[in-house]
């Protein structure tokens, strides 16, 4: 007898019905399950698929939901929201979602795959709820302000667990993938967001905040139109039992605070971080020196370029807040900048640090001019180590106080006097700062009042946009909040140099030049990537790599190979085969290759002349070199026990090549090599369309094929630009293992005979 066990309805782009039937004998010993799948196209109303799949069941008590594959598309049929939940019901539902990325009523985004350890269920939660992800890039000023409130609390209270909540009639994300990614990138949303067709009763018509401590607590604090100060007071009140942790988290100016831990980065855009540019937001020029200053905002750095897009220098090393030399300074989402020719200094907005900073281009140092410095002495552990070894940097890392007057600045304009005009992204606040003293002179609220103060300068800056074709402006601009100033949000994203117009396309992650004579638009052809060193997100603390293999566990390993050799010097030649549909934009630079040996191998950077050591390299490799040189100097006789790296400037047979050397002792060892390859799709490749090109790029950017892959592909396709112009970085990760257990004895039977060996490693990906 046939019996209907269950019926499920998957409402995606195709409305799919699956009916399970079970047949078998009365004892339940031999059952066969049939799955009838009927897919009806809700748009064409014409095509359907009827498929029967039979599979055995062990018994009638077996689960009615046997494993099967469902090919999902996304719905165009809106699903209705459930009835609003009261406090206790909402907390119960929220708790049920914490251990599961997707469910029938929810879908987490911007949350790492480690679901079990993401939240402390007895901790303190702040829910910011609203319609943040609609069918446009931005859904209004109020939502932006709401996000900035909670981002500020996230910086001040790292232990506070913040969740964004989006009531949605459909929990599938495909229809809004590009908007989700754009919003997360543009506003740098670092906390996880929960999409759900259920919602709290306070969420019906506007954004609101829900604050509670542990899911077992019956009390819940919810408010809609609350200001940032009151919200922080509420957080302080509910965290009263965690006074010590709150106090430690609230002091952003503490020299012992680790900015890279406090200032998290979005998980949902982690694949896009491997693009050469990640949200290039603002650009300014030095017309006399023919230089450009490009803010690569979500990489927390500023490029100094010449007119031919050759990288001359880089300001910033990693996310954080620290004044130092360019390669050691730390920024957090730098935005607009202004070059002062008489000082040879670049003034720029450090958005997520709520600061105005100055880069002295001659001395190559970064200083903070607002807020004012509270201490000229750096009490960090690293500075203490350097000072003890007599290697204290001439530029102290300065600690600064977070100042409530300047929050999330973005645009920067120079007045005719000696003042800087700073505006936030929503253009509802203007700060006037004295460029010399760093004093805050005035705070102006409201767009009309701002126009009365600096409207002429805004109009002059926006007048450059008349040269840009409308279709480019439509993609680049979010049309944000500037009445009477079309695309006013781009006023710091466009500049003129030598009669040409240079503009940033943050949506397409590109920079373009409009020729002043012909009107043709072409992409910037960047060069000299070696000066960048190893990107900060590929570098790892030295002591953690030596002690814990899990540090590199989340990083895809491209090549593992083992060798059995006699102890001694081992010369390693690495040849990387570049895929046929890819071009290596530039050969590898010595400063970019990161090597670390473990076990019986010796890993110490080779002896360098003073001139070589002063070469501007990535901060990670420089720190390792400094550590190695602090306690001792290496003689020439010891140089055969060092890791040495060199790079061949030419490609050999379509391969990128570099060499390194280690010294091994009897036993086993391993060397980890990480090297960034800057790639671009080959012109006129076999890839037929933009979708294939985007998928191929993702094969390189995301070899682990994370759940965000489809979203990133949709985002790349949304830019409507030629993906063959997009430069991205593939970080080559090699693990080479050496077994040197056997070795000949010396004549005195005590020493070890060291042997020179060489190996060749061929890598394809």
The number of domains is 4
Mean pLDDT across the residues is: 74
Number of strands: 38
Helix/strand/pairing category: alpha+beta
Instruction: State the end-to-end CA separation.
Output: 54 Å
Radius of gyration: 29 Å
CATH topology of the largest domain: Methylamine Dehydrogenase, Chain H
Architecture per CATH nomenclature, i.e. the level-2 architecture of the largest domain: 7 Propeller
Number of helices: 14
Any idea of the CATH class of the largest domain? Mainly Beta
Share of helical residues: 10-25%
Structure description:
The chain has 14 helices and 38 strands. The chain has 765 residues and is α+β, with helices and mostly antiparallel strands. It folds into four domains: 55 residues, N-terminal domain of TfIIb (Single Sheet); 167 residues, 3-Layer(aba) Sandwich (Glutaredoxin), CATH 3.40.30; 253 residues, Methylamine Dehydrogenase, Chain H; 234 residues, no CATH class. The strands form nine sheets. Strands 31, 32, 33, 34, 35, 36, 37 and 38 form an eight-stranded mixed sheet that branches. The protein has a six-stranded mixed sheet with strand order 5-8-7-6-9-10, with helices on one face. It has a four-stranded antiparallel sheet with strand order 1-2-3-4, with no helix packed on it. Helix 3 packs across helix 14 and helix 13 crosses helix 14. It holds the Pfam family NHL.
């Amino acid at each position: 007898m046939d019996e209907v066990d269950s019926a499920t309805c998957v409402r995606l782009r195709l409305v799919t019905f699956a009916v399970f039937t079970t047949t078998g004998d009365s004892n339940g010993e031999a059952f066969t399950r049939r799955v009838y799948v009927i897919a009806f196209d809700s748009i064409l109303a014409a095509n359907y698929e009827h498929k029967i799949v039979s599979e055995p069941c062990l018994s009638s008590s077996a689960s009615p939901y046997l494993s099967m594959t469902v090919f999902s598309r996304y719905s165009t049929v809106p699903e209705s929201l459930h009835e609003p939940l009261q406090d206790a019901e909402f907390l119960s539902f929220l708790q049920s979602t914490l251990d599961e990325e997707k469910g029938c009523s929810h879908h987490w985004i911007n949350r790492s795959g480690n679901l079990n350890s993401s939240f402390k269920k007895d901790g303190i939660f702040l829910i910011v709820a609203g319609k943040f992800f609609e069918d446009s890039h931005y859904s209004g000023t109020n939502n932006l302000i709401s996000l900035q409130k909670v981002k500020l609390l996230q910086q001040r209270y790292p232990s506070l667990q913040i969740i964004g909540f989006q009531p949605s009639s459909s929990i599938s994300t495909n229809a809004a993938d590009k908007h989700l990614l754009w919003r997360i990138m543009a506003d740098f949303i670092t906390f996880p967001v929960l999409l759900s067709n259920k919602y709290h009763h306070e969420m019906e018509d506007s954004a609101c905040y829900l604050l509670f401590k542990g899911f077992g607590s019956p009390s819940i604090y919810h408010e809609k139109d609350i200001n940032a100060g009151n919200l922080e007071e509420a957080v302080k009140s509910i965290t009263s039992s965690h006074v010590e942790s709150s106090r430690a988290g609230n002091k952003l100016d503490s020299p012992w605070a680790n900015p890279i831990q406090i200032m998290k980065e979005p998980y949902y855009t982690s694949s896009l971080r491997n693009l050469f540019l990640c949200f290039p937001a603002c650009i300014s020029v030095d017309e006399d020196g023919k230089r450009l200053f490009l803010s690569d905002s979500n990489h927390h750095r500023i490029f100094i370029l010449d007119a031919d897009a050759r990288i001359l220098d880089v300001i910033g090393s990693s996310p954080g807040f620290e004044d130092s030399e360019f390669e050691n300074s730390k920024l957090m989402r730098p935005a607009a900048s202004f070059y002062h020719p008489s000082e040879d200094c670049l003034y720029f907005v450090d958005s997520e640090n709520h600061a105005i900073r100055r880069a002295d281009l001659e001395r190559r140092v970064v200083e903070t001019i607002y807020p004012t410095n509270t201490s000229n002495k750096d009490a960090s552990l690293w500075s203490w180590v350097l000072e003890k070894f007599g290697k204290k940097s001439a530029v102290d890392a300065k600690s600064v106080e977070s100042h409530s007057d300047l929050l999330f600045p973005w645009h920067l304009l120079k007045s005719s006097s000696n003042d800087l005009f700073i505006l936030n992204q929503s253009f509802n606040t203007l700060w006037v700062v004295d460029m010399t003293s760093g004093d805050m002179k005035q705070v102006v609220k409201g767009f009309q009042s701002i126009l009365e103060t600096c409207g002429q300068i805004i109009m002059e800056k926006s007048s450059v946009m008349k040269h840009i074709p409308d279709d480019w402006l439509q993609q680049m601009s979010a049309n944000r909040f500037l009445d009477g100033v079309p695309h006013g949000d781009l006023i710091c994203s466009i500049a003129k140099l030598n009669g040409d117009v240079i503009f940033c396309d943050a949506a397409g992650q590109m920079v373009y030049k409009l020729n002043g004579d012909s009107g043709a638009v072409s992409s910037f052809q960047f060069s000299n990537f070696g000066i960048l060193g190893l990107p900060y997100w590929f570098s790892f603390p030295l002591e953690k790599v030596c002690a814990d293999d899990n540090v590199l566990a989340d990083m895809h390993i491209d090549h593992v190979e083992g060798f059995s050799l006699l102890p001694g010097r081992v010369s390693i030649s690495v040849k990387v085969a570049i895929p046929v549909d890819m071009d290596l934009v530039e050969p590898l630079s010595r400063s970019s290759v990161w090597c670390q040996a473990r076990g019986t191998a010796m890993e110490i950077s080779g002896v360098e002349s003073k001139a070589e050591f002063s070469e501007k390299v990535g901060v990670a490799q420089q720190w390792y070199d400094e550590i190695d040189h602090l306690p001792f100097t290496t003689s020439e006789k010891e140089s055969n026990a060092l890791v040495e790296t060199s790079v061949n400037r030419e490609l050999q047979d379509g391969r990128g090549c570099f060499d390194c050397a280690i010294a091994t002792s009897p036993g086993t060892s391993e060397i980890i090599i990480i090297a960034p390859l800057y790639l671009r799709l080959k012109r006129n490749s076999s890839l037929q369309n933009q979708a294939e090109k985007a998928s191929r790029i993702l094969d390189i950017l995301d070899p682990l094929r994370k759940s965000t892959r489809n979203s990133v592909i949709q985002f790349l396709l949304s830019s409507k630009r030629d993906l063959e112009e997009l430069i991205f970085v593939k970080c080559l990760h090699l693990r080479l293992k050496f077994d040197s257990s056997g070795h000949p004895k010396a004549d005195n039977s005590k020493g070890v005979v060291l042997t020179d060996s060489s190996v060749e490693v061929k890598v394809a990906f």
